[in-house]
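Trying the structure run again after the queue cleared.
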Amino acid sequence: MTVAVPEFFVHFVLSDAFSVVGLILAWLGSTVVIERTNVAKPSTHILMETYREQWMVQMVTRNPRIFDSSVLGMMRQGATFFASSCMIAIGGCVALIGGADQITVFASELANTTVAPKIVWEVKILLLMALLANGFLKFVWAVRLFGYCAIVMASTPNDPKNKTTYATAAKAAEIANHAARSFNRGMRSVYFTIAALTWLIGPLPLMLATITTLILIYRREFSSRTRRALAN
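Done. Tokens:
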């Protein structure tokens, strides 16, 4: 019994499969490692969750809460900016897919030889689109969660003696942490989108870019000066 293989698979080699699977595993695995809580060396992401909880406790007795609203507004603007950037990048990928024929012709003339067919370029661009789409959805959700957090903060009483005050502040902190988690996941999607761009050159550059991205993320989350300052 012969299994039919999709036509575009014949244009890829085994190293392409290894490099793409490695990229996806690195992307998903980094999220698992960074978001672990019960570890001896928590990531910058986990350390910041503690500071957000402390922030909401301090917010209770701050009156007026202009400083708190300003900080939350900056966080929301950052998520909005990256969501817009992802949308623009997705539009650029759609344009590239529409011009895949021209890319193939240009690459053939540049290399003065036969290059990969149109379907290969389209598959590589679709991987970029998938990562960008994930980032866009994460950023949009972060924007919405920051909005929810603002409403819960506004509903938190200024009276520390009110029995609902600190319970409401804790809810605001939890929502802020969920928003930051979504934002950070979106950022990692952007990081690995940049790494995935190198697949347009070949599978080996993709492997090297994936390893470089992992090193960069690990350093920022576990070995940076910022993390040491937060931990101390």
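The CA atoms of residues 191 and 213 lie 7 Å apart. Worth checking whether this holds up in the mutant runs.
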